[in-house]
Amino acid sequence: MPRRHLIVGGGTAGVNAIRTIREEETERSEITLVSAERPYSRMVLPYYLDRSIAESRVFTATPAVLAEWDVRAHLGRRLARLDPARGVATLDDGTTVEFDDCLIATGSSPVRPPVPGADGRAVHAFWTLDQCRALIADVAPGSHVVMVGAGFIAFTILNAILALGARLTIVEIAPRILPRMIDAAGAELVERWLTRHGVRIRTDAHLTRIEDVPAGRGRRPRKRLSFAAGAPILADVVIMATGIRPNLDFLDGAGIRVNQGIVVDDHLRASAPNVYAAGDVAEGPDRITGAGVVHAIEPTAQEHGRVAGANMAGRDVRYRGSVAMNIVEVCHLDIASFGAWDDASAESAVAALPDRPAYRKLLFTGDRLTGAIILGPASDIWTTNDVGMLKGLVQAQTPLGRWKDYLRANPFDVRTAYLATRTAGALLPETVLGRPAKAPGTTPVAV
Amino acid sequence: MRVLRITPEKCTGCLRCELACSYMQTGTFQPAKSVIRVAPFEGITSYAPYTCVQCAEGWCMTACPVGAITINAAGAKDVVDDTCVGCKLCTIACPYGTMFYDPDRRKAFKCDLCGGAPACAAACPTAAITYEEVATEDWLGDFAAARAARLLAGVA
């Protein structure tokens, strides 16, 4: 009997796992996908939001691709219960699926703060395709959009909202913006930059209530946001970007060990031998510390999915761990961070350029670069190149020797240190699956 | 596969590779749009061209959320413009610093080996850049370590 794989979740992790199973297996298996949504890429929704791409471009594993991959798909269905010991999953419509092994890749969902009115009319979350569609319908040129939360997700749609001709105000409960992506000095630079570009920002803003303001004489209905201190803000559209949490409800009683996410080993295996987890639900190894961590980022989901898929297909692939990393561009300013950029115990070096919005912070533990923050104009080629080289130094954990002091003194000359420490040579043998990656669209469809 | 073999000792810093590359990439002589970059060493007394090594993992390719980076006929990782949305994930995934982003077109771009006839190698007057059937390697590491050693004297 062919091996039966169950993939729960059709996002980045799940789709990469399916593709890798088909790439790696030596005997044709049966693959069943259960996904609440049609597979699409969340990363590209901001570009659909501002209409720079058509909606059709967001989909990844289309019905045609799923057919080509010979996947039995239950789309629009969620998992209600998982019984790893018996190898049975029960869907929300009562259907049961039997499996030999199962990948949980159910992703995460936005969290709404317990604020009265946070679920009312014209109050949006931006996470799913449906939520993106709803937001598109509500934002018009001249609309005043108030974004609650100044984290990474909020920033990914900042350009799109401005491109739609809306006016934007960002309110953040923390004393500064991007509290989980960059340090305070970098955030101050970004805040000044955005203010210069017409974005209004209010930090230390404790939202207490969102109310409807009825339509008046020739005036559209609006929303009123009230705060613990300071004047209320009137808005046409409110976007709640106040964090995400992993989708794990169906695991009650499954006996799977969960901490911040599903605890997995260096093969992406959960505490039950026939269950794997990948992506935002998985607490997998961090590349630098080796400790379990939920990064909840796209590159981690992709690598998790491929490693889990290879192991489900019978290979023995050890995962070296994911590098925390984020990049977002707002009003032509690149903002990126890597690794343990907020490690207070690390030695750090900071530098800024006086003539342009450029800032860097490098963090060292021993003679390794363990974290980095880099801000710079998107038009600066050296910013983009240094973004990659900083990632390389963090990923390779290059012993820097005396180049550490050089980098501390010259955070804007990353290239010389990168090249002279032979970091490229250290990275070249590394692949995630122990073999060259295959191009998209070249998956073998029959074994 | 054939790759760009860099022999940094032969580079004179003439920047013809950057000109040729930008012309192939964009149709204009715009070194700022070149995906091969000539790095100065020892002040500006020696130089070395640096570009994508066409690594086996293809970190840019596997990171792309829309499959916009593929492998072309020459074996190079290649950005498909029509599919790229400009999210920049490839620029943080590539650990070599050889992804580029064009803010005007909102697209990522990189060395595609000119589809099998690399203009930089053709333009290089000293054969510092050749297109050869060799395993890719860290062409600049030893050169940079030797040429940059003097920089360390100032800090340690």
Shape field of chain B: globular
Order of helices and strands of chain B: EHEEHEEHEEHEH
Largest sheet of chain A: 5 strands, parallel
Radius of gyration of chain A: 23 Å
Cα separation of the termini of chain B: 42 Å
User: How many domains, in number, for the residues of chain B?
Assistant: 2
Low-confidence stretches of chain B: none
Indicate the percent of residues in helices of chain A.
10-25%
Q: Kindly provide the radius of gyration of chain B, computed on alpha-carbon positions and rounded to a whole number of angstroms.
A: 16 Å
Q: How many strand elements of chain B?
A: 8
| Overall mean pLDDT of chain B | 94
Overview of the structural elements:
The complex is a heterodimer of chains A (447) and B (156). The two termini of chain A are 15 Å apart. Helices cover 24% and strands 28% of the residues of chain A. Chain A is built from 12 helices and 26 strands. The model of chain A has no long low-confidence stretch (mean pLDDT 96). The radius of gyration of chain A is 23 Å and the shape is globular. In chain A, a hairpin with an 8-residue loop joins strand 13 (207-213) and strand 14 (222-227). Chain B has 156 residues and is of the alpha+beta class. Chain B has 5 helices and 8 strands, in the order E-H-E-E-H-E-E-H-E-E-H-E-H. Chain B has a two-stranded antiparallel ribbon. The model of chain B has no long low-confidence stretch (mean pLDDT 94).
